[in-house]
TrEMBL record:
Cellular component terms (Gene Ontology): plasma membrane
Protein name in the entry: PASTA domain-containing protein
Domain PASTA: from-to ranges: 632-691
Organism: Caldithrix abyssi
GO biological process: cell wall organization
Length: 691
């Protein structure tokens, strides 16, 4: 009896232990399922009876400064299916193959999927899929959505950028401001009941989307249109590789237009090469050539190293400097600083630039913004190229003074020229004005910001007059516009061949940077033409583009009477001027040139002498032939009506003893010896000046 009880007890203990182990294992398994893997199985469970549908936010629009829509959205459908619920499978397959031009097997494969949500097509306009939308089938999901639309096609394409199929920005301001434009998606939760009918889950209310903010640019649609038209025609006219234009407000730094050619259509961006999507105005670095001469001239004037009437001998077109030969396109003799700019003399500017020390030159280049990003913030902006002075060779300063040995962008040059005409202030350029969120609140983004003052107001005014002279008398005559006073500077630069490391004899960058109107400039316009073929000069390839742009955009904002005064006609030397001009024979060259400059008479200096030996007139131009010594007075010259300085310049003092009467600052009204009297020995000449 006791042995049987013992056996039963043992069996009971084994069974109890087994049951305990089973329950412990069950509890562990339930703990693992319900606690450790709760989220996983809850998700699986929800997928069986619940579907989360994103409610896409509408991407914000992009508008110009006047509220014109540059980028908007159009309604479309993202067509999808729940394969397990589709009834009319074959009809749906045939319609999809017809509308989307893909094999039927593609859509059969989608409808045989085990997944509960599959796309058939995305971003499809309603008119293209009306037969499919008309199908009454619970398995077809037809969520409405919005598709990015660029109503003006190629207008400002590189600046605006484009988006991917999910409306994420991929370039330009679409990328730069992707987050505020995108907004925040909402969500709706759908539930299935036993018969697989769909209804909203009351326990999970709909989360509405927060639409993206609208982005307002500083761009003016009308100005941008004019600029792109003129650039396209200009590039085609000279059979160039590409072209760039930037138009700035010089008193704020606001970008009014930024254009590139060739361009692309953001609506079909996938059909265009990557090269056409580049914003060359900020990405392409080039050597500017003669447009840099205005920077060099500004340093000379600001540092008071030279005045506009200081002269230099330009070696008749060829000059060797530290073993390197520099050339001018035309042979020039003596030129003032003003004429060096107007005639775009490389030799003259190189000689003038030697007055500037390397540290001062470098400091001004940095202050103008070269060698650094402008701060506009657009994707892909280049800083340009500017070596520190310690790495400059013997000819680097000379090269930079005429626009070689330095790399710039079109935007950098526009910013620098804006400072030359606005009183000397560098403004940080900006292209975005503000955001306006879905609640209507304004969020400022860009505003006028003075970075520094690099020039005085007086120097700025003198530089404006230099550039006016370039257009009226110099290399920029093709930028002249009737009834609008303008100024600017031409530039022509050979391109470096990256394979050989030498300058190409065929490929050039042609440019013109100018402003209008003259008194208070509203626009600074930089035009750069890459590799023109029919002509490579900036005055021929780029200046006409500037003229066409300014001619068309100025009437968009009518000028005041003072701004629209007619330009004076091109200088023609009249008989009256010739009669009024004193005999310059015997003048020192600088005095003669200063007199001609004051009277706005075009001239040309021949020879490298210090004194004028002969004066001639040709093609409305005064020719001054120079020599090393002054002429000998064999007869008494006519000095009546001359200033004392003019008289002294005409006299050989070894032959005349001068006696002065009256005020020395007045004009000579009487001379003791009659004009033409022979002079055989030193004689006394009494000059009476007006009181």
């Amino acid at each position: 009896m006791s042995s049987w009880s013992t056996v039963n007890k043992k069996r009971l203990m084994v069974v109890s232990a087994a049951i305990l182990v089973f329950w412990l294992a069950l509890e562990v398994h339930l703990f693992r399922l319900q606690v450790l893997q709760h989220d996983r199985f809850m998700k699986i469970s929800e997928q069986q009876y619940e579907k989360r549908i994103p409610l896409h936010a509408v991407r914000g629009m992009i508008l110009d400064r006047n509220g014109n829509r540059l980028v908007s959205n159009s309604l479309h459908y993202d067509l999808a299916v729940d394969p397990k619920l589709v009834k009319n499978r074959e009809k749906l397959v045939r319609l999809c193959a017809q509308k989307f031009h893909r094999p039927e097997k593609v859509y059969r494969s989608i409808l045989q999927s085990d997944r509960r949500f599959r796309y058939l097509a995305r971003k499809v306009p309603a008119e293209e899929i009306r037969p499919i939308l008309a199908l009454k089938d619970r398995g077809i999901i037809k969520p409405q959505n919005f598709h990015r639309q660029y109503p003006y096609g190629t207008l400002a394409a590189q600046l605006l950028g484009f988006t991917d199929p999910d409306d994420n920005g991929l370039g330009g301001v679409e990328l730069l401001f992707n987050e505020p434009l995108k907004g925040k998606d909402g969500e709706a939760v759908l539930q299935y009941d036993g018969p697989r009918r769909v209804f909203y889950n009351a326990d999970k209310p709909i989360v509405p989307p927060r639409n993206g903010a609208n982005l307002y640019l500083t761009i003016d649609k009308n100005i941008q249109t004019v600029v792109e038209d003129a650039l396209r025609e200009g590039v085609r006219r000279v059979k160039a590789r590409a072209g760039m234009v930037v138009v700035l407000d010089p008193y704020s730094g606001a970008v009014l237009a930024m254009a590139n050619y060739p361009t692309f259509d953001p609506n079909r961006h996938q059909n265009f090469p990557l090269d056409s999507k580049r914003n060359r105005c900020i990405t392409d670095v080039y050597e500017p050539g003669s447009t840099m001469k205005m920077v060099t001239a500004s340093i000379l004037l600001q540092e008071q190293l030279k005045s506009s009437n200081d002269i230099v001998f330009c070696n008749n077109g060829s000059f060797t400097f530290h073993g390197r030969v520099f050339h001018d396109t035309k042979k020039h003799g003596w030129l003032t600083l003003r004429k060096v700019v107007e005639k775009s003399s490389n030799i003259g500017m190189i000689k003038f630039s030697q007055e500037i020390s390397k540290p001062v030159f470098f400091r001004y280049l940095k202050n103008f913004g070269f060698g650094a990003k402008t701060g506009i913030g657009l994707p892909g902006e280049a800083a340009g190229l500017l070596d520190v002075p310690s790495r400059w060779s013997l000819v680097t300063k000379a090269s930079i003074s005429i626009g070689y040995g330095i790399g710039v962008t079109t935007l950098q040059m526009a910013v620098a020229y804006a400072a030359m005409v606005n009183g000397g202030y560098i403004y940080r350029p900006y292209v975005v004005s503000h955001l306006q969120n879905s609640a209507g609140e304004i969020i400022p983004v860009g505003k006028p910001m003075q970075v520094r003052q690099v020039l005085s107001k007086e120097v700025s005014e003198e530089l404006k007059s230099f550039m006016r002279g370039v257009v009226e008398r110099g290399t920029g005559k093709k930028a002249r516009i009737d009834n609008i006073v303008t100024g600017g500077k031409t530039g022509t630069a050979r391109k470096m061949n990256p394979k050989t490391g030498k300058y190409s004899a065929r490929n050039y960058m042609a440019s013109f940077i100018g402003f209008a109107p003259y008194d208070r400039p509203r626009y600074v316009c930089a035009v750069v033409i890459d590799e023109p073929r029919t002509t490579h000069y900036g005055g021929e390839a780029a200046a006409p583009v500037f003229r066409e742009i300014i001619r068309r955009i100025v009437p968009l904002n009518p000028l005041s009477p003072s701004e629209s005064e007619p330009q004076p006609p091109e200088m023609i030397l009249t008989e009256e001027q010739m009669d009024d001009l004193p005999d310059l024979t015997g003048f020192d060259v600088q005095a003669a040139v200063s007199l001609l400059e004051q009277r706005n008479i075009d001239y040309k200096v021949q020879g490298d002498g210090a004194f004028v030996q002969q004066v001639a007139f040709k093609d409305e131009t005064v020719l001054l032939k120079t020599g090393q010594v002054t002429v000998k007075n064999e007869r008494v010259p006519n000095l009546v009506g001359k200033t004392l300085r003019e008289a002294m310049a005409r006299l050989d003092l070894s032959r005349f003893k001068i006696v002065l009467k009256g005020k020395k600052k007045g004009l000579i009204r009487k001379q003791s010896l009659s004009p033409g009297t022979p002079v055989k020995r030193r004689v006394e000449l009494v000059l009476t000046c007006a009181d």
